[in-house]
Amino acid sequence: MENVNRTLPSWFYLLGLSTSPHSQVIEFLLFLVMYIITLAGNCLLLITVRTSPALHTPMYFFLCNLSFLDICFSSTVAPVILKNTLSIDKSISVGACVLQMFLYLGLGAAECILLAVMAYDRFVAICRPLHYSSIMNMRFCIILALIPWIVGFTNSSIQIPITWRLPFCRTHYVNHFFCEVPPFLRLSCIDPWLNEIAMYVAASLIVICSFLLTLVSYVYIISTILRIRSSQRRHAVFSTCASHLAVVSLYYGTIMSIYLQPPSSHSVETDKIVSVLYTVVTPMLNPIIYSIRNKDVKKCIIRNFQKVAKSYQNIVSY
User: Fold this and answer.
1) pLDDT at position 8
2) Cα–Cα distance, 238 to 251 (Å, whole number)
3) Is residue 318 included in any domain, yes or no?
4) Is the pLDDT reported for residue 1 higher than 50?
5) CA 117 → CA 67, 107, 221, 251, 254, distances in Å?
6) Residues contacting residue 4 through CB under 8 Å, at least 6 positions apart
7) Which domain holds residue 133?
8) Is 265 a residue whose pLDDT tops 60?
9) pLDDT tens for residues 135-169?
10) Does 61 fall in a domain?
């Protein structure tokens, strides 16, 4: 082990999702559309909440945090995919790779915890409505919003140094479309057992605990909904909960399939598809599922568009 060459290469080469030129064009267009929808949907939500006093509540405060986080999370991966999909030069410097790995780990873990925080907010609102305003005061909301960022980037600060201490001497070609920890562990010419333990422990503490907290919150929420007498209101709340749980399950499920499986059971191609789901697809779906399907948000969006259209007409007529 002592004789292993520990010289860190200056560059890595990301092989991407496909080597077929025809497939690469389709992938580029698909990722471009998804990235544009992600930015447009999340920015629209942020602007709508900011300009609508009726939406200045804890629920939409956390939704804005999720939207901002999704913009950052998607932007750490999508531009690299777009560049490498059509580019002949698929190289990435070590510095850029480390930065991308640090950001996606921190933001990904933060999103896991934030989804649990949002589920807790809904639990208090539905199961403890009389105490909601006193429990979810602004000070407590800010603390809950800061916890995901602190825990997420603390996790990054632990994972990144031990990953980049490994000797990557097998190859400099990474069979992936961005710098993610598991593919880099496969490049090491020594047994990365410490990294795997750290990865499993972090995933267990962050992902599983967040998922269980979310699940428990929704169990209480659903049990409360079942006691609602109005079938129409009960159906509406059930529909919202089902949509939320679908997105939560997709995100947590894909994260756990990457970080809680032993390396021997990983399929490289399957890992790529799963990574696409939680890095690109979920940030695109979140504003649609959590917000744009919400009647209050839709009313505010329509009202804002009407104001803009009226202002434009006034300027033109003037």
Assistant:
1) 64
2) 20
3) no
4) no
5) 14, 15, 14, 15, 19
6) 167, 169, 189, 190
7) 11-298
8) no
9) 999 999 999 999 999 999 999 999 999 888 888 87
10) yes
Contact 275, 230 (CB under 8 A): no
Query: Based on the number of CB atoms within 10 Å of its own CB, is 62 exposed (0-12), middle (13-18) or buried (19 or more)?
Result: buried
Percentage with pLDDT > 70 across the chain: 90
- Scored b (16 or more CB within 10 A) or e, 288-315 reads ebbbeebeebeebbeeeeeeeeeeeeee
- Specify the higher pLDDT residue, 291 or 206: 206
Residue 1 lies inside a defined structural domain of this protein = no
Residue 58 tokens, joined = 């804890």
126, 224 contact by CB (below 8 A): yes
Gap between the Cα atoms of 103 and 92, Å rounded: 16
Q: Which tokens sit at 126?
A: 């539905």
Of 54-58, 237-241, 293-297, the range with the highest mean pLDDT is 54-58
Domain annotation covers residue 41 = yes
- CATH number of the domain residue 71 falls in: 1.20.1070.10
| Nearest C-alpha neighbor of 183 from the set 252, 114, 109, 92 | 92
Q: What is the mean pLDDT of residues 174-195?
A: 84
Cα 316 to Cα 176: distance, rounded to the nearest angstrom: 52
Taking each helix axis from N to C end, the angle separating 231-259 and 94-127, rounded to the nearest 10 degrees, works out to 150
Mark 140-161 as b/e (b = at least 16 C-beta within 10 Å). Answer: ebeebbeebbebbbebbeebbe
Residue indicated by tokens 């105490």: 131
State how many domains the chain has.
Answer: 1
pLDDT band at residue 6 under the 50/70/90 scheme: low
DSSP codes joined into one string, 95-106? HHHHHHHHHHHH
Rounded CA-CA distance 105/159 in Å is: 8
Tokens found for residue 176: 């992936």
C-beta of residue 192 within 8 angstroms of C-beta of residue 170: no
